[in-house]
Structures are given as C-alpha cells and as structure tokens.
Amino acid sequence: MSGGEERPGPGAAPSFGEGLRTAVAARGPLVVGVDPHASLLAQWGLADDADGLRVFARTVLESCAEHACALKPQSAFFERHGSRGIAVLEELLGTARERGVLTILDVKRGDIGSTMGGYADAYLRPGAPLEADAITVSPYLGFGSLGPALELAGAHGKGVFVLALTSNPDGPEVQHARRAQGSAADGAAGGDSAASVARTIAAHAREANLAEIAAAGLDPARAWGSTGLVIGATVGDALRELGIDVAATRAPVLAPGFGAQGAGPEDRAEVFGGAADRVLVSLSRGVLSAGPEPQALATRAEELAAAYAL
Asked: How far is it, in rounded angstroms, from Cα 5 to Cα 66?
C-alpha cells in the first residue's frame, strides 16, 4: 500500500496483522516515530506550541509515509499542549487514515474493567476522534485486564502491541521476574511454573494470535496476528535466556532501541532470530533529525528503510 492508496471498503478490511504484513512487504519494516520533543521543535525552527506541533506532524506525514510501514505518534508530546495538542493528534490520525497510512498510537494504556474499556473506545473504535490502527498497552495489571482492548481490536480489524521486554535499563526488574508458584498462565507459558513475566506475556499473545488466525482460516505458517509485542532491540540474549520463542507467537514485534539507543541493522536477525521478518524497526530521532526540509526527511527515511530490510 502506498501512502495514497485506499483501504478496502467496510467488511472487506483485513485484520490489522495482515494489513501490517502487506505494508511491510510494500514499503519495508521502518516505523517512524512522530515524537515532537520541545528540543526537536526548536531544532526545526518551530515554536513549542500547537501551531509548531501541527507543522511538524504534517511534515513528517508528508515526507515519510511513502517509506514507512506505519507512523507511531507518541501521545505524550501532543498531550503536553492540552486540548490544542490533542486536536493536532486527532488531525494527524485522521489524515493518515484518509491516505491509507497505518498508525500505531503510543499511549501504553493499562487499567481494569470499564476504565480499560474507555481507553479502548477512545483509540480503537471506528469513528472515534482519536481512532488509530493500533495502540501500545501495558499488561502489568494482568494480561486479562487487556480484554476490552483485545475484544474491540478483534471486532474492528485493529491491533495492540503489548509491552513484553522493553529497551529501558530498568525493565528487567519486572519483565525478567519469575513466579514462585504456578498460576492459570502456566499452560500458556509451556507449563513452567517459574516462567518469567515476559515469557508469560508472550505466551498469552501467542494464544490470542493463533485463535485469530484459526478463526480467519489463514495459514498459520505465514499469517501475522494482530496482538503484537513490544521488544527492545537492545535486550541482547534475553529472549534466549528467558526461553521466549518469538516466532511461535505469530506476533508482529514493535522494536524500539535501534539507532540512537545503540542497536543496528545486524541486531534485527541477531536478537530476534526466526522472528526477524516480523520486526518493525521503530526509529524517531534517526529520521527526524534530518528535518525540517521535507526532501531531506524523505531521503533519510528511504535510506533507513533500505538499510533495515532483510
């Protein structure tokens, strides 16, 4: 799908996972983060206000969409400008949707019951002002707490990316922790009562994806599920050490940590092994530092998409 292509009509849209697979095949694995830090706005010669934000967001969309499988706006940098900033985010998501550009809204929501349902409704319901194709979610109130988001995503061809092994140095404090006793998740984690938190999350994602793929009658050997995982490209040998088979989850992997955080093209295969073809290379500063000139941004995005292609 190019930036100007239309999506299939109502009832014909593919699942998010399959739509993403198509986008990666067409344009490569690059996900461009739309992260308008105050310092980056200043570097671009823009005011740190909603007007500057609007110019920034439009420029990134216009320049990078043809070379990225998706755009990933970071909600926090829009929220900091209040209602006017949220209005810019709404415009960005709507314009991207009109142009057939996939969006992954980085909001990392995680709550329980009706509150999680409210978050899901805000971002995953068709027609919602802040409708995105997928969102990032936090499972640390229990994977079951994500139920409202998973259900709404499944009903409307949307996706979620669940935090599993993040790229921040403090992540292992929670994500590498192992349970001392068995739980209902043991079956999902291969019967290992001492499975790590990250392995249990990956196992739940696998269950969700295999169920989705089977219900759709897709080939489980090649289909992508719509329950993705967030796994940092800087986690080193953690996947092997924790016994996590990412390929078996059928999950697309949103991978921060490339570029400024230290990971390079070789880490796509080295860290993720058999799942390398489903790794989305999330880059923000590496692309946006080429701005504000649109052609320079487009050239940088094109170069990076080629550099990270398998």
From this structure: 11
Q: Which two tokens stand for residue 208?
A: 């969700």
Summarize pLDDT for 33-86 with one digit per residue, the tens: 999 999 999 999 999 999 999 999 999 999 999 999 999 999 999 999 999 999
pLDDT at residue 7 tops 50: no
CA 115, 153, 113: angle at the middle one, nearest 5?
20
Alpha-carbon gap, residue 309 to 104, rounded angstroms: 20
Whether 72 sits among the annotated catalytic residues: the reply is no
Tokens of 302: 């094109």
CA distances from 143 to 132, 148, 150, 204, 207 (A): 21, 11, 10, 7, 12
Residue 302 CA from chain centroid, whole number: 20
Looking at residue 9, its pLDDT comes to 38
**Block residue for tokens 């999350």:** 201
What does pTM read for this prediction?
Answer: 0.92
Note whether 157 and 19 are within 8 A (CB).
Answer: yes
* 163 DSSP β-pair partners: 230
Question: Which residue is catalytic, options 108, 125, 176, 179?
Answer: 108
Q: Which helix (H) or strand (E) holds 228?
A: strand 227-231
Reading the block at residue 116, the tokens are 């999680």
Please measure the distance between the N-terminal and C-terminal CA atoms of the chain and give it in whole angstroms.
19
Q: Are 58 and 36 in contact (CB under 8 A)?
A: no
Radius of gyration of the chain (CA): 18
